[in-house]
Specification:
The chain is about 45% helix and about 20% strand. It has 21 helices and 29 strands.
Amino acid sequence: MSNNKKFYITTAIAYASSKPHIGNAYDIVLADMIARYKKQQGFDVFLMTGSDEHGQKIEEKAKEAGITPKEYVDNAASVIKGVWDSLNTNFDKFIRTTDDDHELAVQKIFTKLYEQGDIYKGHYEGKYCVPCESFFTPSQLVDGKCPDCGRDVIDSKEEAYFLKLSKYQDKLLEYYEQNPDFIKPESRKNEMINNFLKPGLSDLCVSRSSFTWGVPVEFDKKHVTYVWLDALSNYITGIGYNPQGSTEQFEKLWPADLHVIGKDIVRFHTIYWPIILMALGLPLPKQVLGHPWVLVGEDKMSKSKGNVIYADDLAKRFSVDAVRYYLLSEIPFTQDGTITYESFISKFNSDLANTLGNLVNRSIAMTNKYFDGTVLKGKVFDNFDEELIATAKESIEKYHSLMDIYHNAEAIDAVMALAKRCNKYIDETAPWTLAKDEAQKDRLNTVLYNLLECIRLLSIMLSPVIPESCDNIKKQICNNNNTLAFGLTDSFTVGAATPLFARIDTEKVLAEIAEAEAKAAAEKAENVATVAQIGIEDFAKVELTAAKIIDCEAVPKAKKLLKLTLDDGTGTRTVASGIAKFYTPDELKGKTVILVSNLKPATLCGIESQGMILAADCGDDVKVISLEDIPAGAKIR
């Protein structure tokens, strides 16, 4: 296979609203495995991932946090990249939709499509889901809620620009027919045809005017480019596309060979995205892989359900390769996979500690014990050897055929079948018995050679899945020959046998996890804050202002609250404070206090509290911090 043949693979870019959980992380782990396998095959691979950083949801979250949207997504992108790095994924580019070159290219794409008549101006009225950033007609809702995420929707009516999907509907269907492998698995393609294309496509809203955090429309600054035109375009802008002139990298890499995405966004990648490309006059990606979800037990992961598992946390506890192995071996090609701590530990102990780890450790230890670490290619064979070698050849064949079509879980099963056969081979040949008979030395040499040669093959086939562990195996057997064929090594001189995976004490670890979760839940319930050091830039975000209490009154039905009316130097504002136990209203009137003046308003017992005053805990007492000779409105720093 030519070393010059390119393979451009992408993941869906992660939405920068929150830390990605293990289900989100499956995208990048799967894509990284495919990229590593393709490199094994001699392809010139380019893997791109990134973060989707615009939209109403992010604008709202930034406002809640009291920071700008750009500050918010800078933090979020750093977290996403950190999780990807923690899983030992080797991406070639991490694109952000706030990158200057991406935003400029998106503006030019929007303008080009408008000028050629594929985008037009109109009005949108319908149901809108903020988390999904999607519009729906009333008939598309499920029990009145978003059909994708199940959350509440809001009524939305605004001026908007639309992309003419209907214009390209027949052309897209024709492309499906001419390229039967465009969407995988097959069930996803049938869903797109039957649920969306055959009933007829409605034109797609591609701009919003009700919020500002997005790429401005070049010729109409009241509008920002709506998420799907912005986010989907990353696959071409990230490698240098611009309607006014693209780079050599774009000409080399496009069309993409594979988009790796979750099944919930197949519609956007196999209907909206191909039509955008058709309108731009660009080739379509060769294939879209819509993988299933990773469920916790029987449920989809959700913060509100409290069942979220984070990949980087799991990696810290069990190792990076353990997480990669579980995701890539336990998630079927067409059906949702599940993860629980119990199933994770069981898989770890069974496959990694017992089957693979034990095989490597025993084989190397016996080579050192019986032959001072060196064995030669075998000469004395019997039926057990033939069966082992036949299994090795069968595993290699299945490995290639299944990995080529991205059936990674089945491919791993085929590889582990060889590891299991090796362990059975040890039982059949009983090396410890052969070692007792000097006349059987050549036979013992053959047995250990066969085991080490199979371990070499295992380290090659599993390296896209558990790369760090396979590097460790190669070091222990002192062999870097990456050719997948049995009997290519003339001799092995092994190093010291060091355990790959220590067996996990299930009860002990589950108890530790339960204790940690209980502690976290208790801290959340008690609202216990962990004190952490902050930088001067964080402190500078807090605005402290001198404010005079011009009125104060008790709040009916709220024994702890006092309603304060403050003069902050620019006018008056109301603050509800939980200090009624320590002060009467008259004791506070006339005092000048320290006000946190840029705190997001909150409603307490029907009172909109527009800030917070500072007080000190003094044992069982609380004392409001008051100022003397400081005018209202003075800034405190």
